UniProtKB/TrEMBL annotation:
This is Putative pterin-4-alpha-carbinolamine dehydratase. Pfam families: Pterin_4a. InterPro entries: PCD_sf, Pterin_deHydtase. It comes from Devosia ginsengisoli. Its EC number is 4.2.1.96. GO terms for biological process: tetrahydrobiopterin biosynthetic process. The lineage of its organism: Bacteria, Pseudomonadati, Pseudomonadota, Alphaproteobacteria, Hyphomicrobiales. The keyword Lyase applies. The keyword Signal does not apply. Belongs to the pterin-4-alpha-carbinolamine dehydratase family. It is an enzyme of class 4 (lyase).
Length: 96
């Protein structure tokens, strides 16, 4: 069972991430990704889906045309865990 991050651990994890916003009430981090069109947004989602399956950790997300909104939170821990930070890093790498 994965543990929720302490305040210090969370702050350290977030320092290494750009563009992710911490929602304290939800115990989650959010980021919105914009693309040229739906095809590019969906191609990105396909790659994120594969990374999520590989990690055994899955985003809460939505898509509207060229925009993909991703929320990461560890349901099993009731908040943010190291798995969310790791998946956020993997998602950011997909963009490079
Ligand atoms: C059994 C399975 O590994 C768990 O239910 C995993 C799957 N993906 C998950 N994803 C997220 N975001 N939070 C979880 O707690 C979680 N749990």
């Amino acid at each position: 069972m994965v543990e929720k991050l302490s305040d210090t651990e969370r702050e350290a994890g977030l320092r290494g991430l750009k563009g992710w916003i911490y929602d304290e009430a939800a115990g989650a981090i959010d980021r919105v990704f914009k693309f040229k069109d739906f095809s590019e947004a969906f191609a990105f989602m396909s790659r994120v889906a594969l990374a999520a399956e590989k990690a055994g950790h899955h985003p809460d997300w939505s898509n509207s045309y060229n925009s993909v909104s991703i929320r990461l939170s560890t349901h099993d821990a009731g908040g943010l865990s190291a798995r969310d930070i790791a998946l956020a890093r993997a998602i950011d790498k997909i963009l490079i």
